Amino acid sequence: MKKLLVTGSSGLIRSEVCVYFANQGWAIHGLDNNQRSIFFGPQGDTRWNQQRLQQTLANFTHHELDIRDRQGILKLLENLKPDAIVHTAAQPSHDRAAAIPFDDFDTNAVGTLNLLEATRQFCPESPFVHLSTNKVYGDRPNTIPLKELDIRWNYDDPAYANGIPETFSIDQSKHSLFGASKVAADIMVQEYGRYFNMPTCCLRGGCLTGPNHSGVELHGFLSYLVNAT
Ligand SMILES: NC(=O)c1ccc[n+]([C@@H]2O[C@H](COP(=O)([O-])OP(=O)(O)OC[C@H]3O[C@@H](n4cnc5c(N)ncnc54)[C@H](O)[C@@H]3O)[C@@H](O)[C@H]2O)c1
């Protein structure tokens, strides 16, 4: 049975990945330490989602580990040698990052490096998918002219009809400390792909939410609003 390692498995996005791949017959190894409750307080607690996965998925193993724990990550990857890695564990809030810059960078940038290097040492052929963010472009998308439609605004330039392309510059913009730590991770993931010829990939999503989000005012705002009404 193929093994999938999912970091941040109790969070919104990866809990969905765990269910999807479990239904495809993969053994799921979830890594999370409920750091979201440290970042955001009790409302950010993700233990309920961890318990849901443990109770509902046949082949789910939880690993209580911090991605900043370099030796722990090396040991886990050496023992597990997963067939694929999906990395979503992160400090995900702009405003929180400004209050905890070391924790933010250590988690987002250094934690990602710990996982990449462990993957290179023990399973370099396994695909490594990183949940990056559209915030790598900083506030530069705000310079694209907009046009008002009946019920929404849209880009006025047909070049952006399908969204912002990866060729869009990440320079000359303000990112927030969160955006900057995610840029560092994104570049490192790309570099391990190019430099070491590993199958790595960055996905740059934005404004994602759903029923399994432990939404708080500082992150997961849509889910927070729905729960507050
Ligand atoms: N939700 C969005 O709108 C959105 C948009 C773009 C990108 N992303 C990215 O997707 C990823 C997941 O976002 P989410 O909304 O699911 O966030 P989330 O906070 O719901 O999930 C992240 C999980 O990672 C865990 N975690 C955090 N630090 C950890 C550490 N040091 N060690 C182990 N586990 C740790 C948390 O406990 C949490 O369960 C993040 O990388 C985020 O930047 C999210």
Structure description:
The chain has helices at 12-23, 35-40, 47-56, 70-80, 94-99, 101-122, 176-196, 221-228, and strands spanning 3-7, 27-31, 60-63, 84-87, 128-133, 146-148, 153-155, 200-205. The chain has 229 residues and is α/β, with parallel strands linked by helices. It has one domain (3-138, 174-228): Rossmann fold, CATH 3.40.50. A hairpin with a 4-residue loop joins strand 6 and strand 7. The longest helix has 22 residues, at 101-122. The protein starts with a strand and ends with a helix. 37% of the residues are buried. The mean pLDDT is 92. Nicotinamide-adenine-dinucleotide binds at residues 8, 10-13, 32-36, 46, 66-68, 88-90, 92, 107, 111, 131, 133, 182, 205-208, 213.
In short:
By secondary structure, this protein is α/β, with parallel strands linked by helices.
List the helices and strands and how they pair.
Layout: E1 3-7, H1 12-23, E2 27-31, H2 35-40, H3 47-56, E3 60-63, H4 70-80, E4 84-87, H5 94-99, H6 101-122, E5 128-133, E6 146-148, E7 153-155, H7 176-196, E8 200-205, H8 221-228
Parallel strand pairs: 1-2, 1-4, 2-3, 4-5, 5-8
Antiparallel strand pairs: 6-7
Helix pairs in contact: 4-6, 6-7
The site of nicotinamide-adenine-dinucleotide has 28 residues, from helix 1, helix 2, helix 6 and strand 5.
